[in-house]
């Protein structure tokens, strides 16, 4: 059976492993530490730095496919691997648009995808001009490296915007700005695509954020009309095709007065797709492995009318009750709840795991998922 290498040692790599076992795949992971989330479960673990070409060459030797749980591997290293006949998916030409948000915005605009007004910011003068252009509705972003609300700023005045831009540019942080969108809610349209060009889309999800971090995903998005849902899915498929993405692609969207605009792209399994583990015929993790191997894709039908995923984000303090007891208490009260933990120690705001619940009544399903996740975090019921 094929060997797949995952570069990156987080929970996304960890959750690929059970799917790989069921498919009979041989898996390796390049991890930064022995106790990293994925390193705890993979049978074959190589310790090394993903920015070190030698470490990449060693772990990928003889692999049938190489993929990622993040988008930060240097593209020049990936090009070297490809030159050495290593199958890298997604390829660096596509990954660029997940690594660099300004390149992403520019490409999406070129293919006609809906994006907010944007401009590169290379000076305080450009910051002042953009502020005036969008009447002060400004979202400033680092073009690279930001995630989960990091690398994003909302200046309250032109003076603050100019000062912030000057400070960040002085620290060699590349920047761009876009019009701040007063959205109604956030959606996520996820697809998977093979190198041969087969594409399958999952139902569109509503995501609810807490401090820039996804906390809840509801599948399918409630009260989303069939026409707009189809627009979201069609847009995600078109982006995957135009950018030549292989594997899972998440297109995060803003819904505004019945229209959509692209927020972010991720070229890997995504937090808003965790619901597929228990709510879908084929999970995003199995589908990603199929896609990077260019195997036929699985069905993306839901197995229940609703699935709700709630992240267990580390609270302000770590309860005295051991995690194993918290888990068993949730199992006892809510046998329908599916608990997924990442093997991570407590830290405030840290993604430590998530809970999935499926059912027919959205209110009841969400109440169970919220209560279960709350107990795992706080050792008390809501």
What does this structure look like?
- With 382 residues, the chain is α+β, with helices and mostly antiparallel strands.
- Helices cover 34% and strands 26% of the residues.
- It contains twelve helices and 17 strands.
- The strands form three sheets. Strands 9, 10, 11, 12, 13, 14, 15, 16 and 17 form a nine-stranded antiparallel β-sheet that branches. Strands 3-2-1-4 form a four-stranded parallel β-sheet, sandwiched between helices.
- The radius of gyration is 21 Å and the shape is globular.
- The model has no long low-confidence stretch (mean pLDDT 96).
Number of strands: 17
- Helix count from the secondary structure assignment: 12
Q: What's the story with the biggest beta sheet?
A: 9 strands, antiparallel
**What is the first-to-last residue Cα distance?**
47 Å
Low-confidence stretches: none
Tell me what portion of residues adopts beta-strand conformation.
Answer: 25-35%
> Which structural class fits the helix and strand makeup?
alpha+beta
Helix amount, in percent?
Answer: 25-40%
* Shape summary: globular
H/E topology pattern = EHEEHEHHHEHEEHEEEEEHEEHHEHEEH
Rg on CA atoms, Å:
21 Å
| Mean pLDDT, all residues | 96
How are the SSEs ordered, and which strands pair?
Blueprint: E1 3-7, H1 11-23, E2 26-31, E3 44-47, H2 53-60, E4 65-68, H3 75-83, H4 92-99, H5 101-110, E5 118-121, H6 124-133, E6 138-142, E7 152-153, H7 158-170, E8 175-179, E9 185-193, E10 199-201, E11 205-210, E12 213-219, H8 226-242, E13 247-256, E14 259-266, H9 276-279, H10 284-292, E15 306-313, H11 323-333, E16 338-341, E17 351-359, H12 362-378
Parallel strand pairs: 1-2, 1-4, 2-3
Antiparallel strand pairs: 5-8, 6-7, 6-8, 9-10, 9-11, 9-13, 11-12, 12-15, 13-14, 15-17, 16-17
């Amino acid at each position: 059976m094929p060997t797949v290498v995952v570069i990156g040692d987080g929970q996304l790599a960890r959750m690929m492993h059970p799917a790989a076992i069921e498919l009979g795949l041989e898996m390796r992971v390049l991890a930064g530490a022995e106790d990293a989330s994925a390193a705890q479960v993979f049978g074959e673990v190589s310790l090394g730095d993903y920015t070190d070409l030698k470490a990449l060459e060693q772990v990928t030797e003889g692999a049938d496919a190489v993929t990622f749980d993040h988008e930060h591997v240097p593209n020049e290293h990936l090009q070297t691997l490809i030159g050495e006949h290593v199958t890298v998916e997604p390829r660096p030409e596509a990954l660029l648009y997940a690594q660099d948000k300004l390149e992403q915005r520019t490409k999406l605009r070129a293919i006609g995808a809906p994006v907010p007004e944007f401009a590169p910011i290379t000076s305080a003068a450009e910051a002042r001009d953009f502020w005036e252009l969008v009447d002060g509705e400004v979202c400033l972003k680092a073009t690279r490296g930001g995630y989960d609300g990091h690398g994003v700023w909302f200046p309250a005045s032109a003076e603050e915007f100019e000062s912030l831009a000057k400070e960040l540019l002085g620290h060699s942080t590349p920047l761009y700005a876009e019009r701040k969108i007063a959205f109604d809610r956030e959606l996520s349209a996820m697809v998977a695509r093979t190198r041969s060009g087969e594409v399958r889309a999952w139902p569109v999800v509503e995501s609810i954020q807490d401090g820039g971090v996804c906390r809840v995903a509801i599948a399918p998005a409630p009260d989303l009309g069939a026409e707009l849902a189809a627009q979201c899915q069609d847009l995600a498929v078109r982006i995957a095709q135009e950018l030549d993405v292989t594997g899972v692609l998440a297109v995060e969207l803003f819904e505004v007065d019945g229209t959509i605009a692209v927020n972010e792209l991720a070229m890997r399994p995504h937090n808003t797709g965790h619901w597929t583990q228990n709510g879908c015929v084929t999970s995003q993790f199995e589908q990603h492995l199929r896609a990077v191997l260019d195997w036929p894709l699985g069905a993306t039908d839901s197995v229940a009318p609703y699935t709700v995923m709630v992240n267990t984000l580390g609270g302000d303090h770590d309860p005295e009750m051991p995690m194993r007891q918290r888990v068993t208490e949730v199992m006892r009260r809510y046998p329908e709840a599916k608990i997924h933990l990442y093997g991570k120690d407590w830290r405030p705001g840290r993604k430590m795991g998530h809970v999935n619940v499926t059912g027919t009544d959205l209110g009841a399903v969400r109440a169970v998922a919220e209560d279960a996740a709350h107990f795992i975090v706080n050792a008390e019921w809501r």
